[in-house]
Amino acid sequence: MTHASSLLGWDLEINMPEAGASARGQAQSEIELLRQKMTIDLTGPVEKADKLKALNDAEKGVVRVVKRELNYYQKVPPKLVGELQKATIDSNIPWREARKKSDFSIFKPHLEKITELKREEANYLDPSGNPYNALLDLSEEGLTITDLDKVFSELVPQLKKILAKTLSQGVFPEKHALEEIDYDVNSLKQVNEKILQLLGMPDKRFRQDVSTHPFSIKIASDDVRITTRYEPKDFKASMFGLMHECGHALYELQVDHELQFAPTATGVSAGVHESQSRFWENIVGRSKEFVPLVYPS
Amino acid sequence: MTHASSLLGWDLEINMPEAGASARGQAQSEIELLRQKMTIDLTGPVEKADKLKALNDAEKGVVRVVKRELNYYQKVPPKLVGELQKATIDSNIPWREARKKSDFSIFKPHLEKITELKREEANYLDPSGNPYNALLDLSEEGLTITDLDKVFSELVPQLKKILAKTLSQGVFPEKHALEEIDYDVNSLKQVNEKILQLLGMPDKRFRQDVSTHPFSIKIASDDVRITTRYEPKDFKASMFGLMHECGHALYELQVDHELQFAPTATGVSAGVHESQSRFWENIVGRSKEFVPLVYPS
User: Is this model's pTM higher than 0.80 or not?
Assistant: First the structure.
């Protein structure tokens, strides 16, 4: 189910003829409902497994993740599960059009619909708490607004200090001329190819395409897909975007093969995923050691 | 299920990174087993529907098609259903490699495995009859070897007569110089684009890609995909191949939208499908009226 659903999502962005969107929403919605039904059918076995003493770490992980999915599907009714899928997919082509035309009004009704459904979802998940906490938990297990406020209230002033100090020392270079000009798409494609090699992306286990907004998606342990875009202004957006997506992809590509068909065979949270993508994009990609590899001085 | 399964099949040929084949076989196999289970769950409702007097033609069609699928899934055990999917998908990359290297030995073990499984399948479907009849019925409902022998024994001598007469009259042109030369792929791509327009292929409802062997597949009523290839010898293979696939696609694209989520929303048989593809390829494409549209004299 995850394999099929991921591929349907990828194809929606990359290949699908426009008129196919309506049936795609229907298909994704049906797959998600089937997944809900199949997960709920696991209630008994999971409860049993949860009581076993002799589970190893991998097995405990599976129980933990399935319990989490079970909690979601038990609380959110099938009607809403289906509608959320359909509304998200229906919004895809209008979003692309709105972006292309810089016209928010095209996307607005879709965003309103999705927001309304997400509020309902939050309410089913936790009727008494702050709705954002319920949604945050879906990406970052257990994290709350209070936690986030604490983190950021400490981080922001410190970061501002560092920034002020760095700027005052004038060690940042002026804007480079390359950042201002329109670039040649084919030349940048060659640079990006080189970056994929430098980052050790394994040829037979991934592919790269172009999409409106760059993303990364795992279809299977040996089939991870990334996208990039060529606008063609500001080559850094394309180049660092690619490294960012490589970071997501490398994280997924390094999951133990023994777990490949287990529900644990994916990143643990949005935050950890983002730490991997930003590690490659910022810590590696913008380092003094890496830049000369693609821009010989 | 059909939507997802078709897309997984298409992607296997067009996009999938090589290493993804094993998980793809697994995924397709699981989808097919789910489809078997869901179809068998329809046994009661279909038997009920079959007894109703007041069904219209569309409803009768649905009952007929589901009964046919039910018959298949009731007779062929899940283990074999899954193995057939897996074996077919596992053979795809080796087949491409064998074709590329003109080395049958790469594909041979896969063909042997599939043949063995198809024999088992035939045996489950009809243990007492000729195995080929059981398999023929899957593509062409009710047709038997005896029927085919009768058709061909009448057709072949007549066709030979027509061919001999035509050749003796010397009305066929000599081979054209264009047929012998290597063609420029980009130029032929432009010709093919023009052909898609001439055949009225609806822009937003289909897409075209390149694959090892040309094929056509319906993902949904408004999402039909065709492929072509550029070898680049003998432009006719690419050009008429494209028209052939357009024929398949136009047949699927013209199915009534009201049926789009019904099991009847597809071609009725391999033979009728082929009649449509060959109509566009041969009757239209090779006609005195069509050729001047792409090759002005």
Answer: yes
